[in-house]
Amino acid sequence: MEQHQSKLIQHLGIVAGVCDELGLAELIDERIPQPRRKVSVGQAVKAMILNALGFSGRALYLNPRFYENRPVEQLIGKGVTAADLHDASLGTALDALYEYGITELFYRIASSVTRKLGIHTKFAHLDSTSFSVHGVYNSEEEEGEGEGPVVRIPKGETERQRTGVEPGGSLTDLCEPNEYSPVGGGVEREHQ
User: Bridge partners of 175?
Assistant: First the structure.
């Protein structure tokens, strides 16, 4: 006689399906090296997304317990078990993401997903946040006079025409207007 067992899936099946349809794990795995991993970095990210959306604010080492009664192969990928989603596996995946560059990876994935979904944009919105620099700088010193490299910060003018202030910069994100999907970003220096 064949034995049946039930597993708890809740809303996680829908979220996993959307991740699969968008090819999230594959997009990540194409960009990040996978030396000697049973659970790919993309699968680890998917597992952490599902865990976070399972309303579980637990530490990474408790992740296998979260997946104990869930159909892991259907949610994460073939051959993956709850025991494979341990803190070392997820932690090294987070390290690999950081080494690649989180912002760069996010922009690449966002760009790929908007193309895949056929989202076309005509306009872009530039959102910038200014910041200013305060403190004492060794700009007046010559090379070799002080300790360390010389930081040269030119004086500039602010929008209110205050002269002699330290320049700031802009943190920018280029977003598409209706979807608020980031297209690019960076840090730019003012008063150059």
Answer: 125, 182
For 21-42, write each residue's pLDDT tens digit.
999 999 999 999 888 899 999 9
**Number of C-beta neighbours around residue 27 at 10 A:** 19
Q: Which pTM was predicted?
A: 0.64
* Dihedral angle over CA of 136, 188, 114, 34, nearest 10: -60
At 26, phi and psi to the nearest 5?
A: -65, -40
State pLDDT tens for residues 109-129: 988 998 899 988 776 665 555
